[in-house]
Amino acid sequence: MPLKRWIWPGETKQADELAAAGIQPLTARVLASRGIGSPNEARRFLSTEGELHDPFLMKGMEQAVALIEGALQEGKLIVIYGDYDCDGITSTVLLYRYLEEQGANVGYYIPDREDEGYGLNMEACETLHQNGAELVITVDNGISAAAEIDRLHELGIKVVVTDHHQPPEILPAADALIDPHCEDSGYPFRELCGVGVAFKLVCALEGDIEGVDTLARYADLAAIGTIADVVPLCGENRIIARAGLQKMEESENPGICALLAAAGLAEKALGAESVSFGLAPRLNAASRMGNCDDSVALMLCDDPQQAAVLAERVDAANRERKQLEGAIMADIARQVEEDPSLLRYRVLVLAGEGWHHGIVGIAASRMVERYGKPCLLIGTQGEEARGSARSVPGFSVIDAITRCKDCLIKFGGHPLAAGFSLKTSDVGRLRAALERAAAGMAPDMPIPQLPLDAALHPRELDIATIEQLSALEPFGAGNELPLFLLPGARIEEINAIGEGKHLKLRLRFGERSHYAVYFGMTVGRFPYRVGEAVDVAANLSVSEYLGQKRLSIKIRDLRPQGFDQEEYFADYCCCERLSRGEALTPEQARRITPVREELALVYRAVQKRSGLPADGDQFYLSCCRGRLGCGKTRVALDVLLEAGLIASRDGQLQILPAEGKKDLMSTKILSRLHSVLSGNAVGIQ
């Protein structure tokens, strides 16, 4: 697992200016690190009051209101056509609730994730016609459905499109079209999600230009979709999210109350994380497991007992989703153990028979986090295959996939995520095509980054100081939970928690000791020992338990004190090129080629300590830093593996019985490197 590139916080005059203007010093440093440098701008951001824009500033709003009001007056059947994700569900529920309260003849339609996929489709158009729909309002979709909207018109059905996705060059011929991303939209804030646009439509229908009353009624639904869809929590999104989280804490909505209870969040202070990791996964899980209706019904439910039943069903779906995700990740681990070369590609492509199509996207995100590379996971079913792609910032996976369209049946997405289908027999061809495409796009793949907001002095690590950061809430996309550097903390204890899946460390920082949790890190993979000094990147917050406040430290990353990351990443890129058989310069080869003594050093390290991690970076941090560079360490491990002197079993290294003397210099890896060093080869092919 490669390390992330830490982006160090800079000391800025703007932070001093903000502090001089009365903003708490640590809050000022966070704001300044995020480009909010003037006192007026900072006060606007921190203000608990906020103005919502006039919904009629959005092009298409007047036409949409006229069409909907006409259908209301004439008693026409209005059908809201939504989407199966959390944003689409809350969009559907919000607009349905409002129209139902107005006495509308209204229904909704959510396409099936597996059988229909995202957005309008021709079969759904026929079904809407057969069921008597006279006006269709899309929410969280429709901007790319030109052919389907033409068909609805042929069937005599009027269409209002409300969407927030990037529009195509040719817009659909809807009777009214609302999308803040359209170039001529005219709306001051373009980052609304689907439920945000639906909310603005309701404001317009109500004539609530300032949005105050409408927000008071629907803030909870709007906030769930806004936070779940990972749109930037600034501008109107920040106002919606803040109001919605407050409303949820005292919600009288039986469906939301039941969902909070199922997530273990009832009667607790709520933040954006509560939605992102508690509510949204449960609402999404029902559709992933093939029953989106449960999530919609839960959000619309007015009966507490029935809501509890529905909440248990979506919670059960989420538990099943976790089990399927775990099975996919275990299958991937087995494949990688059997064929480590799968991880050498620029873009990871893995496939498995029967992998659930609704789950592979989540698993792909886990792979990106684990390996720091774009990843495509493909579920095969006989001759057919469908997959999801996730990427890292700086590498557009949709551009890469587009270059491989000859391998695919269907595809779509955006720079960081995509979906696609293909023939099972073409999986290998797609992997090779993607490697060629990625090589043309990025000679060296982007390194995942970890931006730090501020370096803390030990005296700042206390409850009173960290509580000041609450002024920055709610946290989420575009306003992430601040990430702080704790330089030179010393490890005093290392303990496994959560059935061995996580760590709890005691760290000495200055004159005091603090406990910190490192989720997803195990004792076996942790490369540090008690007594070592480390630099810690951590999220800080204050929690309350039994009336007592506690400082919460969640480690995001950790490395040796004073670690030279530029030296590390130079070695890393050379090793990646070597593993893929690509050209190296003599200087690049020199920096990663180990001599005999260095090979022996690595061999003795494996011999001395059983159970060392097979991952080259973790092994380097555990055994060789300070004595050998990361590049030489990784190459030495590969040489020893190739020579059969060591082996990897279940992610751990072990010594193998030696059969005669091994000539390590004749291994393929060292032969290639030495050919470059001697000038007999232009590069490694």
From TrEMBL:
Keywords carried by this UniProt record: Exonuclease, Hydrolase, Nuclease
Ranges that cross the membrane: none
Which Pfam family, giving just one, matches this sequence?
DHH
Task: List each copy of the DDH domain by range.
Answer: 78-226
Please name the GO terms of the biological process aspect recorded for this protein, alphabetically: DNA recombination; DNA repair
Domain DHHA1 residues, every copy: 346-438
Q: Which family does it belong to?
A: Belongs to the RecJ family.
Listed name of the protein: Single-stranded-DNA-specific exonuclease RecJ
UniProt source species? Harryflintia acetispora
